[in-house]
Input
Amino acid sequence: REALENEANEKRSMEEKFSKMCEELSQQGMQASQEGGRLERELAYTREALENEANEKRSMEEKFSKMCEELSQQGMQASQEGGRLERELAYTREALENE
Output
């Protein structure tokens, strides 16, 4: 009879340990799930920030490229105007010398 009681007590003890272990694993699973959710939100936020930064950079590069193109065109126009004015000046000087 004592052997049966010892066996029953041992079985009860093992069941309690198993139950406690299952509860701890369940809590760890919930914590892992919560941490996974937090990390997913953080990743989404980081991706969005990175995407916004990339879009802003792209926009600035496009503006800079457009500005460079406009400045290049203005430089060409200024050069052409300078050439025209030099020719006009030469023509005017020649006309003055011939008078």
In short: The chain has one domain: 1-70.
